[in-house]
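Recap slide: Protein translocase subunit SecY, sequence and predicted structure.
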Amino acid sequence: MFSAIARIFRTPDLRKKIAFSLGIVALFRLGSFIPAPFVDFGNVQACLAANQGTSGLYELVNLFSGGALLQLSVFALGIMPYITASIIVQLLRVVIPHFETLYKEGASGQSTLTQYTRYLTIALGILQSTTLITVARSGALFGTSASSECSQLITNDAWYAIMLMVITMTAGTGVIMWMGELITERGIGNGMSLLIFTSIAARFPNSLGSIGQQKGLDILLIVIVVGLLVVAAVVFVEQSQRRIPVQYAKRMVGRRTYGGNNTYIPIKVNMAGVVPVIFASSLLYLPALIAQFNQPAAGQSPAAWVTWVTNNLTKGDHPLYMLLYFLLIVGFTYFYVAITFNPEEVADNMKKYGGFIPGIRAGRPTAEYLDFVLTRVTLPGALYLGLIALLPLIAFSAIGADQNFPFGGASILIIVGVGLETVKQIDSQLQQRHYEGLLR
């Protein structure tokens, strides 16, 4: 392993790519601490110290921004607008036939879809930055029970100041998107994923330190041991797949013989990745967000539905919240897998090139068999995603770690997934220049 790492730094081209990627990552983290115009940096830091973490309503967005959201920095929105835009464009392929046609055109069509994703990212950046500034002006960014300092985060309420803040945060989202594409083109690849990895990993030391200070060294050691076990389990499941054997018949084209080889269709246990967790979290945040904007005036009691939402759908340790979260993740997993993997399309492509599954007739029987296997494999994957996502909530009930528990939910899935993919990228580039790669 150490000799392989030494070969990485002895290879000039690969060394430059890694250095370039690390430089972009450093600039990305630097922008997360530069406050936007007209933001009172002192009050923001005081509120962060007083609240010891994030508000549950903005926990997911703050996670993907590396903590920059609640600091109201120039990179406050992080990579979240791009993630949302990518998911929306992917889902629109099912609704809009033109998008599906572009996807099937190859590189040129997918380049057009990428351009649509960029435009939608900027539009979502404007919307989300406006919402964030509005919430910060109302004093509800750190919750309704926050101190008076948290209602004075913005020093200038004039229209031009608000517009400048919106433009700055939206431009920050565009710069992050550009940085990710630079890493993909000139660095080690997976630019957007690597920036998300950086945002989440940057919060690990602070989270573990907070657990150590609040709960003691023994609880910290238990959390680390549990975290290592969770990482090992996630790696095992993420690498697990059901391989469906496929044989291709021999074909004579002129004097040459084509086909006749054996391969397989890999169906991963977790084909949906982290997307169902994001969907479920976003959907559960909507009632809390609506209730927050329907708070009564001073001296008046809140509406019954606002009280019910506040008591049941804003507390992660509430049994109803956990149950809905788990069921939404399972449902969205089946939904997303059904969109991204089309058994009929796979069966048609196999039939077109003379491929078949041993013991299964080509055409419709093959599509039905693939759908049957996919449904059965998706069930453990959906249950696995639900259990991993509930880990932080269970940790809150057990040891009171709440947001400080880093080994669970979307964070650990992204950390492991991006880490494995990055190692594979480096390994493949190393094998192009040496007989041996990073992995043995």
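Strands lie at 241-248, 251-253, 256-258, 262-268, 355-356.
The chain has two domains: 1-203+406-440, 206-405.
(End of recap.)
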